[in-house]
Amino acid sequence: MKERTLPLTLDFFRKDKKFPSVWCAGCGNGVIMNALIRAFQKKGLTKDDIVMVSGIGCSSRMPVYLDVHTVHTTHGRALPYATGIKLANPKMEVVVVMGDGDALAIGGNHFIHTARRNIEISAIVINNRIYGMTGGQYSPATPTGCYSTTSSFGNIDQPFDISAMAKVAGAAYVGRTSVYHIAEMEKMLENGLHKSGFSVVEVMSNCHTYFGRMNNIKSAEAMLNWYKDNTTTDPQIASDTGKILRGVFTDRDVNGFLHEHDLMVERAAAVPAGTH
Ligand SMILES: Cc1ncc(C[n+]2csc(CCOP(=O)(O)OP(=O)(O)O)c2C)c(N)n1
Ligand code: SF4
Ligand SMILES: [Mg+2]
To answer: How far is CA 99 from the centre of its chain?
Structure first.
């Protein structure tokens, strides 16, 4: 509990007229942004150590508000940009923020292959189970039967299990938490930084404006309580009740992409000129 009292430094926020944010009052994005700053602080990172990369979406606005190095890219393509940035600047802590649509729909291929490649980047997937920015269309994380502006009679698709997919694709660190569970979220965000491979923290978040309104969980508070009541860290309870499982699903030391890349460069350099 003591760790939660760490004062939030304002140093990480941009001072040049970016506030107030575009986010609806009570949106989970602000809660996650503050938790991420605390994770940076706990890890002893300075603003100059960090590059934040995002695509397009409400969640992807986060780097706009943070005074670290930032690149606000195109929808679904944050991970390829981040990969290039990390390769060019291996010492930088590269952190990618994506929405569930950004990461799993248009960016799904990049997500799987970045996990397979295990490049030393930290990704946060803000899973509000809907396209927030564009008006509440269903996403690949919208549960079956849920309503959205494009599923007025209930979504007939199955949702991706984002964390399971990251794990099976090979990511070194994968955890799932929610905006209700702030201390747990801070810890996962902190532990997801600076891994030997790709790390993914899926944060289940509230878009009360669209998902909540259309699925009868109409306020930010009601959505937070929904995550309190409908998630668990106990796999048995999850399997018996259908509650969503939170926790760290994998945390492995791997030989990440940059590590392998450096070894390959050494091998190539050892070959006498003109013999290959
Ligand atoms: C190439 C491209 N396709 C579509 C869009 C429109 N678009 C912008 S954000 C978005 C989805 C946002 O949903 P999500 O990634 O879940 O983020 P959220 O707003 O929910 O945080 C879409 C489809 C776009 N900007 N660019
Ligand atoms: S539309 Fe939804 S995701 Fe976007 S800022 Fe509002 S509450 Fe947050
Ligand atoms: Mg979304």
So the answer is: 7
